[in-house]
Amino acid sequence: MQESLGVVETQTVRLFTADEPFTTTDGDTVGPVDVAFETYGALNESKSNAIFILHALTGDAHAAGLHAGDTRPGWWDSIIGPGKPVDTNRFFVICANLLGGCQGTTGPSSANPATGEPYGLDFPMLSVTDLVNVHRALLRHLGIGRLLAAIGGSLGGMQVLDWGLRHPEELANAIVVAASSRLTAQNIAFSAVARRAIMSDENFKQGRYALAGVSPDVGLAIARMMAHITYVSEDALSGKFGRELRPNKDKPGFGIDFQVESYLAHQGEVFLERFDALSYVYLSRVMDYFDPFAEEGITAAIEGSPLGWLVLSFDTDWRFGTGHSRRIVRWLEGAAQPVTFREIPSPWGHDSFLLKVDRYHATVRAFLDRALEVGL
């Protein structure tokens, strides 16, 4: 039986301080670093049932359950909970807001201790490895030496891949969903336009908009609208909206005439309530530079310490299509890794990884059932 987790709480922990800061892969330092995270289920006595959930570009630590007074469930509530594929009756589940975020973890909108003002564009540039290293610090804080599995979709899948390649001794299994090991020129182009919309907004103020008491809302909403188009398939948009006009629209104009335009405008508006423009700028750039297999010897660690891999794609995902997943699989197979690959049929495009797609959920469930049976 699939049940709700009920009310959950977000916790915050300081993992790095000004005296002992976090050092990025580029050698920059940032401290203090606070991390927001949530946990679900119970850690068993042997600490062998822990699963780390890694979120996508605009996600957060609230992956499942409900916050008190809020009717909106966590962003991956469809797959995490009692009786669900990531079964909290059996697994201890951890999800943390990533470094550079804006929902509890230190990021560019946080106060720079050197100035007392928001970092803005003085925040260091980040890599996927940096995001993972903060998650690893959280794992040490929780006293967990090895995960039964790490699971993530999109940017979350990139983090899973990076974690598994660089620190295979810390994972028994890795589930990479709708992700990429190297963005195409088209993907980089989409993100470039989104960032340009934000940074060209008159209220961006060279990243110091918080001090001016404004926000680049127009640019951020446009960035979200454009990105959302890439997350859904053409069939999904056509099936939901077609060419339907809004009520009382009897002649053409330059306003919001079509239902699909109204939908995108709504997506942009609600996004402003929960996300910060600087985090979008920084984290989208993190994705652009991710290319682990370009590093000489990157697979050496996993060749000596193999882990179980599940790589999933969706047949209508044109943002990170099946070709991206097949590339990951080829590299892993070349490193003698046990890899299971599935292309899942779904009409919903890239967003499918967030939705209840029966075959997708059944595949994750079966893989985790086997992982639990085999153990660490």
Secondary-structure topology with pairs:
Elements: E1 11-16, E2 22-23, E3 29-30, E4 33-40, E5 50-54, E6 80-81, E7 86-87, E8 92-96, H1 128-141, E9 149-153, H2 155-166, E10 173-177, H3 185-199, H4 209-212, H5 217-231, H6 234-241, H7 259-272, H8 277-289, H9 300-304, E11 308-314, H10 322-334, E12 339-344, H11 358-374
Parallel strand pairs: 5-8, 5-9, 6-7, 9-10, 10-11, 11-12
Antiparallel strand pairs: 1-4, 2-3, 4-8
Helix pairs in contact: 1-2, 3-5, 3-8, 5-7
Would you give an account of this structure?
The protein is α/β, with parallel strands linked by helices. It has two domains: 11-182 and 291-374, Rossmann fold; 187-285, Rna Polymerase Sigma Factor, Chain: A, CATH 1.10.1740. It is built from eleven helices and twelve strands. It has helices at 128-141, 155-166, 185-199, 209-212, 217-231, 234-241, 259-272, 277-289, 300-304, 322-334, 358-374, and strands at residues 11-16, 22-23, 29-30, 33-40, 50-54, 80-81, 86-87, 92-96, 149-153, 173-177, 308-314, 339-344. The strands form three sheets. An eight-stranded mixed beta sheet has the order 1-4-8-5-9-10-11-12, sandwiched between helices. Strand 9, helix 2 (155-166) and strand 10 form a beta-alpha-beta unit. Helix 1 packs across helix 2 (155-166), helix 3 packs antiparallel against helix 5 (217-231) and helix 3 packs antiparallel against helix 8. The longest helix has 17 residues, at 358-374. The radius of gyration is 21 Å and the shape is globular. The mean pLDDT is 95.
Describe the structure concisely.
This protein has 376 residues and is an alpha/beta fold. The protein contains 11 helices and 12 strands. α2 links the parallel β9 and β10.
